[in-house]
């Protein structure tokens, strides 16, 4: 069998994964690739791809679409009984929350990561009602910890915890949004991931139809419960996480795959992965 990777957007993770596996990336135009029934193609975060039948595609476009649209994600996870933030698309409901002194997270973009498009709606803000122009709102609840859990073929292959990289008070942004711009990083040293976080993450990836995915999940100690925020089908992968993705793909989907000749030459010389 043969293993390939398909990515339409520039991605360090995709390039690194192809290099780690010693495989080719399929060109998005003028490709000479001819699918075989025994081929396995790793779809790296694309909601539309060429017809690759009869090859097997990991993370089908429909599954990626399920995970990349936050409203669709919430609806599917809610139906499956996965705990998610309380959400609404109705401004009237948001006004009710604000009147009860709840902080609300407005999402201006349904397809975005790293906190892009997030608007914090605070009941103490006199202009808050002018900001009710989002397609999705979630009720903000404090959480003690937040994790990223990588799941592949129904099993957890890696887990990380978000921590502040800067702890001396220099960051003056909104600490309720835990992203890299706010000085938060993922670590795996000396962490203990609650069982409920692992179980919720595994169920979320399976519910969305993904073969692999990275789940951002909060955990409340007082409620002893995990809350799934989003699932990423093309997460950033480096160092240990990259190694575990490569190993996981080999062991779960591509045992005994044959590396393309050109890819083997590229690996020996240390150059970037080739494309076909």
Structure report:
Strand 12 (212-220) and strand 13 (225-232) form a beta hairpin. The protein has helices at residues 12-21, 61-68, 70-79, 91-99, 195-207, 239-252, 261-269, and strands at residues 3-6, 24-25, 40-43, 56-58, 87-88, 104-107, 118-121, 136-139, 145-152, 155-164, 184-187, 212-220, 225-232. The protein has three domains: 3-59 and 253-269, no CATH class; 61-83 and 142-232, ATP-grasp fold, B domain (D-amino Acid Aminotransferase, Chain A, domain 1); 86-140, Dna Ligase, domain 1. The protein is an alpha+beta fold and 276 residues long. The strands form three sheets. A five-stranded antiparallel sheet has the order 11-10-9-12-13. It has a four-stranded parallel sheet with strand order 2-1-3-4, with helices on one face.
């Amino acid at each position: 069998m043969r293993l390939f990777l398909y990515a339409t957007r520039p991605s360090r993770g995709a390039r690194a994964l192809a290099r780690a596996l010693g495989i080719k990336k399929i060109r998005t135009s003028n490709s000479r690739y001819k699918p075989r029934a025994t081929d396995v193609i790793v779809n790296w975060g694309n909601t539309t791809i060429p017809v690759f039948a009869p090859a097997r595609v990991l993370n089908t476009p429909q599954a990626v679409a399920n995970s990349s649209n936050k409203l669709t994600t919430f609806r599917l996870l809610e139906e499956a009984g996965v705990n998610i933030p309380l959400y609404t698309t109705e401004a009237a409901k948001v006004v009710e929350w604000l009147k009860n002194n709840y902080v609300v997270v407005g999402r201006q973009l349904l397809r975005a990561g790293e906190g892009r498009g997030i608007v914090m709606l605070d009941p103490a803000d006199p202009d808050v009602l002018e900001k009710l122009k989002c397609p999705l709102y979630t009720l903000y609840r404090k959480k003690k910890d937040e994790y990223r859990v990588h799941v592949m073929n129904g099993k957890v292959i890696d887990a990380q915890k978000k921590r502040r990289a800067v702890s001396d008070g220099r960051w003056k942004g909104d600490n309720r949004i835990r992203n890299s711009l706010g000085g938060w990083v993922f670590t795996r040293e000396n962490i203990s991931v609650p069982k409920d976080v692992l179980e919720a993450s595994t169920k979320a990836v399976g519910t969305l139809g993904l073969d692999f995915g990275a789940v951002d999940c909060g955990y409340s100690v007082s409620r002893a419960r995990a809350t799934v925020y989003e699932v990423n089908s093309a997460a950033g992968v480096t160092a240990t996480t990259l190694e575990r993705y490569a190993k996981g793909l080999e062991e779960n989907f591509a045992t005994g795959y044959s590396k393309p000749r050109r890819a083997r030459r590229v690996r020996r010389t240390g150059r970037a992965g080739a494309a076909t």
